[in-house]
Amino acid sequence: MSTLLLKHIRAVVTCDGGDRVLEDTDIFCRDGFIQAMGPDLAREADEVIDCTAMLCYPGLVNTHHHLYQCFSRNLPQVQDLELFDWLRALYEIWKNLDREVVRFSSLTAMGEMLKHGCTTCFDHHYVFPQGSGDLLEAQFGAAAELGMRMVCSRGSMDLSRKDGGLPPDSVVQPIDEIMRDSARAIETYHDPRPGSMRQVVLAPCSPFSVTADLLRESAVLARQYGVRLHTHLCETLDEERYMLEREGIRPLAFMEKLGWVGPDVWYAHGIHFNDAELRLLADTGTGVAHCPSSNMKLSSGVCRLPEMLELGVPVGLALDGSASNDGNSMLEELRTAYLLHRLHSSKRAPSGYDLLKIATAGGAKVLGRTDIGSLEVGKCADMFLIDSRRLELVGCCQDPRNVLGTVGVRGPVDLTVVNGRVAVRQGRLTGWDEGELAAKAGEVCAAYLARA
User: Fold this and answer.
1) What ranges make up the beta strands (E) of 20-62?
2) Which DSSP symbol is given to 125?
3) Which of 3, 41, 141, 240 could bridge to 26 as Cys pair (CB 3.0-4.6 Å)?
4) CA atoms lying within 13 Å on the CB side of residue 158
5) Interatomic CA distance for residues 4 and 28, integer angstroms
């Protein structure tokens, strides 16, 4: 049994159904859950932290990432490419993934996320080179070392270049092999209980790297096991043209035909939906992971976020892979999204607080979680805190609900708590010596890139 008491928090932005902001509040956590919230709680705890002048928020929920891409950031040969050419170039690097690369790229990316207030990460891993071993075990192990709440995908690709897809032969697999390993991954790692620190999703990569049979069989298997489904969809106009030429229908119609709509499904990007398709998403409860920085870097387009919110489409915020974002900060993503949609949609754009809700409660809904995403008694003790006395926040904190979107936070947060345990203290990871991690990760990254 472990307990944590946070005392005298200046403002707790709960992101709950009533959008409450609690002032001068204590939060008492026991065994990973919030047990009490209120002023001057008379509780003893294993650890007591004075949070005077702190602003407290629910842990941010990243609904789409590719952790392995952290070791292919800022490469000069792909800087000016759009998605299809970008993927073709990078697959020549990614086909050399192994357990060590996946472990240290995961530690690096998740470490940065934790330092910027993200407490839950969904990783869409779909590159399984022959002989690379159990890569999900490496990811879950890295998350446990850091204290991150983790959702992994058993992703997949079965449509190689010779068959009309984008990936090389060495990273695609036969459907039977994919289905066997998908069942194994769910049975080995998926924990559906409230407060779970590890869950599994089935996530074939995209309509241009998988067959209809793989999508259909993955949907059947996921529903047999009660796990969720995820893929990239409607990210670029190239994808739309590819699907019209190959299948004769638009991407969402193709997915609907294969059983890929419903409240257990969410798509990454979702930029190029038309009006009727947005209504279908809303009517079926099918979600979208919004990736503004990646969409801008790859010149993919602007997601129709205001319309999605008006219709009630479930939306979460996401970083996407580090190679199309070049960073791992959900705080930066939140402010980027706020500014992008202010520019693009003016008065229809979501507010800073709307974006915070998307990044917390919205992300929880997209992942099918009712135990995270807001600060309430009975929910997971996942949160981050920022000292309002920072120089860059002087004069900004009279509206703590909107400040993360309008002003933003530079640098790491002061405290990140996951599952009732401190994962970041005074802006530094508690689970690793950061200098040691950076040095080792740098060595692994250099050797990996040299193999390409």
Assistant:
1) 21-30, 33-38, 47-50, 54-58, 60-62
2) -
3) 41
4) 18
5) 6
pLDDT grade, residue 143 (50/70/90)?
very high
Average the pLDDT over 298-325 and give the result.
Answer: 97
Tally Cβ neighbours within 10 Å of residue 391. Answer: 6
Per-position DSSP letters for 364-399, written without gaps between them: HHHTT-SSSSS--TTSB--EEEEETTSGGGTTTTT-
Report pLDDT for 340: 98
Domain at 60-366: CATH code? 3.20.20.140
Which segments of the chain belong to CATH 3.20.20.140? 60-366
Structure token pair of residue 343: 């520019």
In whole angstroms, give the CA distance from residue 42 to residue 19.
Answer: 26
Find the helix or strand (DSSP H, E) in which 82 lies: none
Helix, strand, coil percent content, the chain, rounded in steps of 5: 40, 20, 40
304 — phi, psi (to 5°)? -85, 60
Place of tokens 């950031």: 73
The three-state secondary structure class of 338 is helix
Neighbours of 112 (CB within 10 A): 19
For residue 4, what is the enclosing H or E element?
Answer: strand 3-13
Residues of the chain with CATH 2.30.40.10: 3-58+376-429
Residues 6+ away with beta carbon under 8 Å from 395: none
Residue 347 one-letter amino acid: K
The pLDDT tens digits of the residues spanning 320-369 come to: 999 999 999 999 999 999 999 999 999 999 999 999 999 999 999 999 99
Q: Is the Cβ–Cβ distance between 157 and 209 less than 8 Å?
A: yes
- Which ranges of 226-291 does DSSP label H, i.e. alpha helix? 237-246, 251-257, 275-284
Query: What CA–CA distance (Å, rounded) separates 191 from 199?
Result: 5
163 pLDDT band, cuts 50/70/90, is confident
User: 402 vs 92, 343, 350, 361, 406, CA distance in Å?
Assistant: 42, 17, 11, 15, 6
Average pLDDT value over all residues in the chain: 97
Which tokens is 430 given? 């508690």
As its CATH architecture, domain 3-58+376-429 has: Roll (2.30)
pLDDT at 395 over 90: yes
165: confidence class by pLDDT, cuts 50, 70, 90:
confident
pTM of the model: 0.97
Indicate the DSSP class of residue 290.
Answer: E
